[in-house]
Specification:
This protein is α+β, with helices and mostly antiparallel strands. Helix content is 47%, strand content 11%. A hairpin with a 4-residue loop joins strand 1 and strand 2.
Length: 642
């Protein structure tokens, strides 16, 4: 796997950060945990008691009118500021005594809503009694609250049952719920012990008329909810279960909303049904987990709807200090201060050490690169730098070494080019000078042959200068092209006609094979003839007597519409080791300067530049002893119609 410098730096930074965080967190926890736990315990207990008291008020009163006295009493007992607002943050009550009360924090401590109880605060505030499964406060009983007469009547019955149980040796007490309904609670919470006695507790389980009316209204609300979901209605029991009749609790008393397994029971008859008519059977819904969840959800929604007019609306509760602080501060001891300072110094030392180590490994190869670059600037021989790895710095060093080697090759080519240019220009100039000096000294007669020889050397010199000028223009990007529509078969015929005499003198057959009218392309005809002419001239020069040079043009089969111009010969071929260099400037297959085969070594370099200026490419293939093939690939155009 590649080792990345960035990855190592990130790893070191992450390690240092982790050590810093761990050290800081450990000291912070060790220093403040005791004080925070103590303060949090006190605050949570006080907050839970305040919340429970206000929740009880909301469950027993339909509005918040008159809650100010309760809020001030809670603030006096807890020593904290207690404020109550609507959900729109309109003040309901505030215990702040200052003339201008501090602004309330943006986040409320809790929402006082008896129909949606905060289970955490409620569990702490009700001494572990918990809340109902539907999060409705048990003290919110609404229409299930008994009248004073019903409560006294049931209390006398409960006292009689307790006295009966006590005579049977079973300890029991009377417990009065939030609705005012008394119930018998056996010490040890084992109701089955009363089954073997004559103390019938069923009389306490019968709902009163007001309770039955409230239960019927709740059942109607639950059934309406179920019908909206396409489900069958249910018959709720007094403890808000469904299934077989149960008789232990009523809404507002402890007991979960759970389904009961249905048992065979008489079909109830409505009180208002006509005599002699049979009431419709109560259909028990199919007992599935999905149905039970839907029934429980509808019963909970029905309870909330039924109780909404009997309880106070939700309110925001804010608990804090009079000065606006939420938690008291504390001072660090000298020992703890020293521990923090020591840990910080250790973390700083580790950070500095890791940074120095990573920085040294990073800077060392960069110094080597800088030194090598400065020596190259001063004209010294290019040299390579050590590659230490495969990370970013290592790849930079490898790229620098490649650049240095390439620069050295370019320098060698530049020196060879200067030498070759000087040689190529010196030869015709020396010939011209020699013939002129001979004529001046009377050693040569300026006859037509003499003049023809001087003209030939001047033309050769002019060709070399023109080639150098074309290369310079191509390198500078200022080579001017005059593109136009070119019929390639006609162009190849023109090139062949121009070189036909030389080919015949060399005993070489020069042929053109191209379909009529041939592929069309858009190019500079003069420059394109120059490029193809250079290839033909080079092919004729290296083809022995009896050989053949063929010019061919065709459209590429790959579908891109490119036009391929091919110049093939049956000459001596090019060795495979020389083939990559045939387009280099002043490169000749014959390394000596005898110029036996002629040529300046610029022709193929000019061909490549001219083709590239047309947006094309040139390639060469060769088999030594069999011949060579040069292919120009030019972007083609669709031939125009007649």
């Amino acid at each position: 796997m590649r080792r990345s410098l960035l990855g190592r730096l990130l790893a070191v930074s992450a390690l240092v950060a982790a050590c810093s965080v761990a050290a800081t967190a450990w000291i912070a926890v060790q220093t403040t945990s005791g004080a925070i736990k103590q303060e949090q315990g006190q605050n949570l207990t006080a907050d839970a008691r305040i919340y429970d008291t206000l929740l009880d008020y909301a469950a027993r009163n339909p509005t918040w009118d008159g809650v100010g006295a309760t809020v001030r009493e809670l603030a006096r007992e807890s020593g904290r500021r207690v404020a109550l607002t609507t959900q729109g943050r309109q003040p309901l009550a505030d215990s702040a005594t200052a003339a201008t009360a501090p602004a309330l924090p943006p986040q409320a401590s809790a929402v006082v809503d008896p129909l949606s109880v905060d289970t955490v605060l409620a569990a702490r505030g009700t001494d572990g009694q918990g809340t109902a499964a539907d999060r409705i406060d048990p003290r919110a009983v609404g229409p299930f609250r008994l009248s004073a007469t019903d409560s006294k009547t049931l209390r006398r019955t409960a006292d009689a049952k307790v006295e009966c149980l006590n005579r049977a040796g079973i300890a029991s007490d009377v417990v009065v719920g939030a609705s005012g309904r008394p119930r018998v609670q056996i010490v040890g919470n084992d109701p089955e012990r009363a089954l073997g006695t004559r103390c019938d507790l069923a009389a306490l389980d019968t709902p009163t008329r007001s309770e039955q009316k409230a239960l019927d209204a709740l059942t109607e609300l639950a059934d309406a909810c179920l019908k909206r979901q396409g489900r069958e209605g249910v018959q709720l029991n007094s403890d808000l279960s469904w299934g077989d009749p149960a008789s232990s609790t009523v809404p507002g008393e402890p007991g979960p909303l759970v389904p009961r397994v249905p048992l065979p029971a008489p079909v109830p008859t409505p009180r208002d049904a006509p005599a002699g008519d049979t009431a419709p059977s109560v259909v028990t819904p199919e007992r599935t987990g999905e149905n039970d969840r839907a029934i429980a959800s509808c019963v909970s929604a029905a309870r909330s709807e039924q109780l909404s007019s009997y309880v106070a609306s939700p309110a925001l509760l804010f608990i804090g200090d009079e000065g606006g602080a939420t938690l008291p501060g504390f001072d660090l001891s000298p020992a703890n201060t020293a521990r923090i300072a020591g840990a910080a110094a250790l973390v700083l030392a580790l950070t500095v050490g890791a940074s120095v180590f990573a920085g040294a490994r990073l800077v060392r190869p960069l110094h080597a690169l800088t030194g090598a670059a400065q020596r190259m600037r001063d004209g010294e021989q290019p040299e390579s730098v050590p590659v230490s790895g495969d990370d970013e710095v290592g790849r930079l060093a490898a790229a620098f070494n490649d650049m240095s080697a390439h620069r050295a090759r370019l320098e060698e080519q530049r020196k060879a080019m200067v030498s070759d240019v000087a040689h190529e220009l010196r030869t015709p100039l020396s010939n011209i000078r020699g013939w002129l000096e001979a004529a001046q000294d009377g050693l040569a007669d300026p006859d037509p042959a003499f003049v023809s020889s001087l003209l030939e050397e001047a033309v050769l010199l002019q060709h070399i200068i023109d080639d150098l000028q074309d290369l310079a223009a191509a390198d500078a990007g200022v080579l001017r092209l005059h593109p136009g529509s070119v019929e390639i078969r006609e162009l190849l015929s023109q090139v062949a006609a121009a070189h036909q005499a030389r080919a015949e003198n060399a005993g070489v057959t020069l042929a053109v094979t191209a379909t009529a009218p041939g592929p069309a392309l858009r190019a500079d005809p003069v420059r394109l003839r120059q490029a193809v002419g250079n290839l033909v001239s080079n092919a004729v020069r290296h083809t022995p007597e009896g050989g053949r040079v063929t010019l061919r043009a065709y459209v590429c089969d790959e579908g891109d519409g490119a036009v391929l111009v091919e110049v093939a010969d049956t000459g001596s071929g090019i060795p495979s080791e020389d083939l990559p260099h045939v387009f280099d400037r002043f490169w000749r297959a014959e390394k000596s300067r005898s110029r036996r085969t002629g040529g300046s070594g610029l022709g193929l370099a000019i061909v490549r530049k001219l083709v590239e200026a047309h947006g094309g490419t040139v390639d060469a293939t060769s088999v030594e002893g069999e011949g060579s093939t040069f292919v120009l690939r030019l972007p083609g155009t669709t031939p125009s119609g007649p």
